[in-house]
Amino acid sequence: MKNKLYPYYDAPEISDLKELVTYCDEKHGEKIAFHWLENKREKTKTYNDVKEDINALGEYFLNEGYVGKHIAVIGENSYNWIITYFATVNSGNVIVPIDKECTKEDVKYFIEKSDTEIFVHSDDYTEEAQFSNCSTLINMNNFDKLLEKGRNLLASGKNEFQNMKIDRNKMCTLVFTSGTTAEPKGVMLSHRNIGTNSISVIKSVKLPDSALLMLPLNHTYGFIATSSAMIVGCKIFINSSLRRLADDIKYAKPKYIPTVPLVGEVFYKNIWSAIRASGKENLIKKMIPISNGLRKIGIDIRRKIFKQIIDGLGGELELIVTGGAPNHEESVEGLTNFGIQVVTCYGISECSPSVSSMRNDHYDPASVGNALYNVELKISEDNEILVKGTGVFLGYYKNEEATKAAMEDGWFKTGDMGELKDDFLYVKGRIKNLIVLSNGKNVSPEELEKEITQNIPDINEVVVYANGDEIIAEIYIEDANNEIQDDIKNKVFLINKSLPTYKHIANVVFRESEFEKTTTKKIKRIKRG
Fold this sequence. Notes:
Number of helices: 18
Shape: globular
Strand order of the largest sheet: 11-12-13-14-15
């Protein structure tokens, strides 16, 4: 399936990350590319600065003999993290992004498994870098000295970095999966994979001119969100810590935030908490249908009548793009009612990562949108989502068996169940999580979890699993007393009435703490029951 119903937005032809940097330099020049707060003072870098700094760092790397090397990077989101990535891949080396949430033991494991020789780290991760036993350590907080050396090399006539020819089809990024049930695998991505995926995103979603970067850069989604924003010339504020997110949004006043569904849900819940605290709940509930009725006849006054709500999110926010997990339809529609468009994307690391996306004006809140430009989708006989396109990875690093198992006649097998209907893709859950009952019926736990969370919004987390043929819902809710638990049980059993008998939840159990999660905040599905 290709997206044929809705026209794509214009975008340049970019096939590698060197072209991307050059395009941004020539197109956006003295516009501010990145800004951030350092010791409570704002720092800025223009698109011209970005290219100059990448050139200097890349020239330094080559002068040090870093050619064909695997270079790991770990640290909080920062400008130096970003130029490390570009300088590495554009000098013929391979970047190995490491999740800053990893334990020291995990970091050491990834360094060894990826054959990394050079490790770039921030001050806060010096201990992890030293523990890795990597042969060369570089502290990115000392980049001023390295950039000066690089600039001196360029001034002396050296120009190896800018003259470096890029092999677009060769691995430039080695990123480890963060699966909820299996050992991480090294996903090999090329310049072509990442470059064309960045273009595919902006052909499908029209991005505003300012953004806030909060997604971890070590995740492919975080990097693609950054590279696509760069191509359209966004002014990008770098948020280095979730603890500072609320303050950074008010300071930076972004029009666009790429994030995960959980953050959008938090925004939505906080909005309603503030509305209730103000005593205006009934008024707002009356205004929403009036506003939506006016929209149907072409009159959109949402951002005027709900200005106070939008001001709580910086005052300029227009668009939230989410990926990495299913969205709650309630929060998608709710934020849209207030004048903040929520666009849901679907992707997987092996596809660089974006596969499908809602469009700005063509969407179904229950879906994950349409196939991106350069992407083809189809559903296999066993309902698995299959992907073909320029973003599909080169394979798993030193794991031919896993690579072969992931492909089927040129199509990548995502491991997700799905459905294509009227050009929209609907994700039904992970195949490996499927509950197979003794009567041969199959039950998707994600489907039941969605039913529960959408119908009982007070629930924090839920995991559905089977104990024999008995389907269990394990629930975490903060400050739950016996009365609250009994009420939730009754509501879950009420949900059963809308489901086929074989999908009925037989028992509800409660837990006192959150479920264990991966570094991407997905619940780990260990065997239960």
